[in-house]
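ERR on first pass: missing label on line 2. Operator R.T. fixed the label and resubmitted. Corrected input:
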Amino acid sequence: MMALGIDLGGTSIKTAVVDITGAPVGEGKEKTPAEDGVEACVEAMLAAAGEAINMAGLRREQLTGAGIGVPGVVLPAKGLVVEATNLTGWVNVPLRDIMSRRLGLRVELANDANAAALGEARFGAGRNVKNLVLFTLGTGIGGGIIINGDILVGANGMGGEIGHTLIEMSRPRPCGCERFGCVEAYAGALGIVKRAHEALAEDWRKHSALHEVAEREKLEAHHVFDLAWDGDFLAKEIIAKTAHALAAGITNILHTLDPELVLLAGGITKAGPRFLEQVRSMVGEMALRQVRDTRVEYALLGDKAGVTGAAAMVLAA
Ligand code: BGC
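pass 2 clean. output:
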């Protein structure tokens, strides 16, 4: 039994054909045409799906179906993407039917972070845990809540939208969701880059090595992390603020749900153990005694959690 997983991210589309143990037997990747609308994204998803299926040496009809993780609010029962914060033109898209027709397969949808949480719960760090919360740290900040092994979808598909919980009330930063003060505006990759540009606009900070990078190429979150570990004063300051914002989001979740495990997945987790340590120690300072020692770890499946969880949706039934 094999299934196709598609992880539609703000930056890239990852696909994998996975077997019943969650292991990938074929993979694909395409850039997300995030600003080009739904059709362009559909075509890119199909291209990435084709790559994974070819690599697996299978024909489509040998697959049980395809699961898709979408970076936005999804109503799985209706097969509808209500909206996707960091993708242009994604409002009320009947993606399940569109993709099912194009792929000739049964298709299930989930929010991308919900899919990643399911992936970790079934095949990763959450295998022996009943209740877990997973944060995806990428272009946006997503969240997935697993209660007794199932995704908490919520009444409006908003279950687990931790990236849009509020952590700043006075002079809050604008978020991609068009509101203000969300965790994502502070700890998402876009937020990190924005913070860096703002800081570099102040003259006295121009002697940061970030300035040279910004002159040379498009500044990205990984540059800020790399320079922080090299000791650059401004990059260190930005990463500490990022960790602090994330820790506030985690603390709110600990105080709301008291899960057994909190997992961090997605691109930013490539930042390595030092970032995780910063986040843990800040949670330790902010959280109430009872939940202070809750395990906060990187997801075991790393950036494959989303794609594996997406496939898991159709492997389950
Ligand atoms: C979206 C979430 C999504 C997350 C990660 C956020 O901006 O609102 O729905 O899960 O990004 O892609």
